[in-house]
TrEMBL record:
The keyword Glycoprotein does not apply. InterPro entries: CoAse, NUDIX_hydrolase-like_dom_sf, NUDIX_hydrolase_dom. It comes from Bradyrhizobium lablabi. Residues 61-197 form the Nudix hydrolase domain. This is NUDIX hydrolase.
């Protein structure tokens, strides 16, 4: 792993109202066909990652998944994140969004994200205002993740399902959307170098798919 670099793409900070207004304008609930079609590979803009996802699509079945990006509408907005249980078969112990695989009984990726958020941390649907889907995000494990950006009203009470997560916590949106906090690292995949993001916050190490999705959120909402 190399030393962290910072990805330089500057954007002016925006306030809470502007964030939600831009999100509503730029996002929608059209489900991308690449969520289930292995022949449509999500693109990242990184040659190493793009090649990795092409290889994964050829070797592994597509695993459709949905996550919720819960932006809590405090005066200074925050993003609600979880820490996954250490015994899970994938991404054990990592920082994540509420979410998981899309079940056959889910009416939509949105429904899956809302269900998982309630199952994992007890976040009730009446507190959640879904805004739209972010770009499809692929991983080395074959997951195709469709994130739902949502406004969350303060005042909710969480109930942690320790079989899936061990903690839930909030991180200031301003920190996560500040490109100065977007470290870029690299690692090897079958002789190729690929990059990934990390956004360390206090004792929390936010990296991998979670940091990558947050970077996509920044580029979609904060960059013109």
């Amino acid at each position: 792993m190399n030393e962290p670099m910072l990805k330089k793409m500057e954007a002016a900070p925006i306030n809470s109202a502007e964030f939600f207004a831009r999100s509503k304008t730029r996002l929608n609930f059209d489900v991308p066909p690449g969520l289930v079609d292995p022949n449509i590979v999500p693109r990242t803009g990184d040659a190493g990652n793009d090649r990795m996802l092409e290889i994964v699509a050829q070797e592994q079945p597509v695993r459709p998944a949905a996550v919720l990006i819960p932006v809590v509408d405090h005066r200074e907005p925050t993003v609600l994140l979880t820490q996954r249980s250490p015994h899970l078969s994938s991404h054990a112990g990592q920082i994540s969004f509420p979410g998981g695989k899309i079940d056959a009984t889910d009416e939509s990726p949105l429904d899956a994200a809302l269900r998982e958020a309630e199952e994992e941390v007890g976040l009730k649907r009446e507190f959640i205002e879904p805004i739209g889907y972010l770009d499809l995000y692929g991983t080395a494990f074959g997951f195709r993740i469709l994130p739902t950006v949502a406004r969350v009203k303060p005042g909710f009470k969480l109930t942690i399902n320790e079989g899936e997560v061990v903690d839930a916590f909030e991180v200031p949106l301003a920190f996560l959307m500040n490109p100065e906090n977007h470290q870029v690292h690299s690692k090897e995949f079958r002789g190729m170098e690929r990059s990934y993001y990390a956004m360390p916050f206090a004792e929390r190490y936010i990296w991998g798919a979670t940091a990558g999705i947050l970077r996509v959120l920044y580029e979609r909402i904060y960059l013109a």
